[in-house]
Design a protein that fits this description.
It contains eight helices and ten strands. By secondary structure, it is of the alpha+beta class. The strands form two sheets. A six-stranded mixed barrel has the order 1-5-2-4-3-6. A four-stranded antiparallel sheet has the order 8-9-7-10. The longest helix has 19 residues. The chain is elongated and about 155 Å long. The termini are far apart.
Length: 314
C-alpha cells in the first residue's frame, strides 16, 4: 500500500524515460521480496495461534490403570487373610466377629496336626470325665510362681492345668460355645473348684475368647502323650499323692534308709520309688486322697521326721 501510494504521486512529475526505468526497478524490488528464501534459524517465540507439533509415541503418557473393582467393593481395613495378625481392637467392626485368633506359629509344631494313637494306659477311661466340661483361666495372681511341674508359671504361655493328665501332655482345646480352638501343654495341676476340668493360661483363654466371661464349655483332645510316662502305673498315678521322707542317687543307701523308716513306722508302709530321670526316693503311699497323705505327713512330723507331700507322678 505504501509503495503504490508513492508511485501514484511521483510518476506524473518524471520524464518518460525516467518513468519507465523507475517502474522497472520497483517491480524488480517487489519480485525479489516475494521470492526470498526462508531463514535457516528458528525464532525463540511462537506466533499466536500456531498449531504445535504432534508428540511422538514415546512421549505419549501411559494410560491410567483400570480401577480394581474387587478392591473397591471390599470393606475398608486390613485384608481378611492377614487380619488375624493384627490387634483385634484395630479391626473394623464387621471383621471383628469373624476373625479367629490363632496360636503363634512357633506353638503349632507337627504334633498339633496329628491326633494321639491309642492311649497307653489301661485305665485311660478314668480321664474321660475330665475331657469335656467347664474350663476357667488363671493369670496375674500366679504369674511368676512355680507350678506343680516345677516350671515357673507364665500367663503369656500356651499352657494349662489339668486334674490328672500327665505333665507335658499336649492337647487341643475347643470352645464349644464359639468353635474357637487352641493348642496347649499341661504343666500344672488344677482347677480345684468342683465341676471344672481345665485351668488355662490367660493368653490361651484369650484365644478362646473367654477372658471376659471367665469360664466356657470346652472339649479336650489329647494330641500327644509325654515320652517319660510309665503306663504300668496307670493314669490314676497322676492323681495320687505320696509322702516322701528321703532321696538318694545310690539305690543301696536308699534301701538302707527305707528299712530304717519301716522299722520305726511300720504303719506307713514305706517303699522305694524312682520316677524317670530322678533319684531313688523313700515314700509312703500312694494315697488316692490328698487329705490322707497330709494326715500321714503330720504324724511323721510330730515324730521328728522331715517329709513332704507330693504327686505320685507329675
Amino acid at each position: 500500500m505504501g509503495i503504490g501510494f508513492h508511485i501514484r504521486f511521483i510518476l506524473p512529475s518524471l520524464p518518460s524515460p525516467t518513468l519507465a526505468l523507475t517502474v522497472a526497478l520497483c517491480g524488480a524490488v517487489l519480485a525479489a521480496g516475494c521470492t526470498a528464501a526462508a531463514p535457516d534459524w528458528e525464532p525463540d517465540w511462537k506466533p499466536h495461534g500456531r498449531t504445535p507439533a504432534t508428540p511422538s509415541a514415546a512421549d505419549q503418557p501411559s494410560a491410567p490403570p483400570a480401577p480394581d473393582t474387587e478392591r473397591l467393593a471390599s470393606p475398608p481395613g486390613p485384608s481378611r487373610e492377614h487380619a488375624d495378625r493384627l490387634p483385634t481392637d484395630r479391626l473394623p467392626t464387621d471383621q471383628l466377629a469373624t476373625v479367629e485368633p490363632r496360636a503363634p506359629q512357633a506353638m503349632q509344631p507337627a504334633w498339633a496336626d496329628h491326633f494321639a494313637t491309642e492311649p497307653p494306659f489301661a485305665d485311660a477311661h478314668l480321664a474321660t470325665p475330665y475331657l469335656e466340661g467347664i474350663a476357667s483361666w488363671y493369670g496375674p495372681t500366679f504369674h511368676g510362681k512355680p507350678t506343680a511341674s516345677g516350671e515357673i508359671y507364665n500367663q503369656f504361655g500356651l499352657t494349662a492345668a489339668h486334674p490328672m493328665l500327665p505333665m507335658g501332655t499336649k492337647i487341643l482345646v475347643e470352645n464349644l460355645e464359639n468353635g474357637r480352638r487352641v493348642w496347649v501343654r499341661i504343666n500344672d495341676r488344677g482347677p480345684y473348684k468342683k465341676g471344672r476340668v481345665l485351668d488355662l493360661s490367660k493368653v490361651a483363654a484369650d484365644q478362646l475368647d473367654m477372658v471376659q466371661a471367665g469360664t466356657a464349655s470346652v472339649r479336650i483332645t489329647v494330641l500327644r502323650w509325654p515320652e517319660d510316662i510309665q503306663p504300668e502305673l496307670g493314669l490314676k498315678a497322676y492323681r495320687q499323692f505320696v509322702v516322701q521322707v528321703a532321696a538318694d542317687h545310690d539305690p543301696f543307701r536308699a534301701e538302707a534308709r527305707r528299712r530304717s523308716f519301716h522299722k520305726r513306722f511300720p504303719w506307713a508302709k514305706f517303699h522305694i520309688d524312682r520316677a524317670p530321670g530322678s533319684a531313688f526316693t523313700v515314700i509312703s503311699g500312694p494315697y488316692d486322697d490328698g487329705q490322707a497323705a497330709n494326715r500321714t505327713a503330720r504324724r511323721l512330723q510330730e515324730a521328728g521326721v522331715t517329709c513332704l507331700v507330693r504327686s505320685y507322678r507329675k
